[in-house]
TrEMBL record:
It is found in: Cytoplasm. The modification 4-aspartylphosphate is found at D51. The keyword Transcription applies. This is Two-component system response regulator QseB. It holds the Pfam family Trans_reg_C. Residues 124-218 bind DNA. PROSITE patterns: OMPR_PHOB (PS51755), RESPONSE_REGULATORY (PS50110). Keywords: Cytoplasm, DNA-binding, Phosphoprotein, Transcription, Transcription regulation, Two-component regulatory system. SMART domains: REC, Trans_reg_C. Its main location: cytoplasm.
Length: 220
């Protein structure tokens, strides 16, 4: 799951980036409204963590721009301004959730998982396909009731595919899930991880659609 963090405090921004990366998210971070708008125009994110008070304006302006463009990317407002009137303004502008500072990082991660779960129309906290179960919160994967160990990137690819059953996800889209801006993308990384997933979870779980990308294999 790829996140954009918009926070002008250097220490807090770095802490969010590191902490949410350890929780399994792929994170990019900016410090201004201008940087946020440029990032959102150029990239696809699964969710945005958005501060309200930024050096060049208000996070509400970023949110308004996003919703005016009919971009439904889930947005979690994370700000020291958490009076009722501020929460109402944020939610009525189009925020999906609102959390005041100081905050617990585990709660931020849980709220982001809930936002992305709702954005894909799911109510369950687990993903299931065939005999494979994936639990995002605990990063647990089981096949036929037996735990399977996956690397962080193998887990990310599997989660992306299981979140969109039947959909074809291109190699480029999967790379977007795996890498932030400052990470070098290796040319055959997706293919290698798909190969490992098939070896661990069954060759028929993931199909290659030639020239288009990958999708989950059909239910038996």
């Amino acid at each position: 799951m790829r996140l954009l963090i918009v926070e002008d405090d250097d220490i807090l921004r770095d802490g969010l980036k590191v902490g949410l990366s350890l929780a399994g998210f792929t994170t990019d971070a900016v410090a201004t409204c201008e940087g946020a708008l440029a990032a959102l125009e150029a990239n696809r994110f699964d969710a945005v963590v958005l501060d309200l008070m930024l050096p060049d304006g208000s996070g509400l302006d970023v949110l308004k721009s996003l919703r005016t463009a009919r971009d439904e990317t889930p947005v979690l407002m994370l700000t020291a301004r958490d009076a009722v009137v501020d929460r109402i303004a944020g939610l009525d502008t189009g925020a999906d959730d609102y959390l005041g500072k100081p905050f617990d990082l585990d709660e931020v991660a849980a709220r982001l998982r809930a936002l992305t779960r709702r954005s894909t129309g799911r109510s369950s906290t687990e993903l299931r396909w065939r005999d494979v179960t994936l639990v995002p919160a605990s990063r647990l994967v089981e096949r036929a009731g037996r735990q399977v160990r996956l690397s962080r990137r193998e887990f990310t690819i599997l989660q992306a595919l299981m979140s969109h059953p039947g959909a074809i996800l291109s190699k480029a889209r999967l790379e977007d899930k795996l890498y932030g801006w400052q990470e070098e993308v290796e040319s055959n990384t997706v293919e290698v991880h798909i190969h490992h997933l098939r070896a661990k979870l069954g060759a028929g779980l993931i199909e290659t659609v030639r020239g288009l990308g990958y999708r989950l294999g059909p239910e038996p």
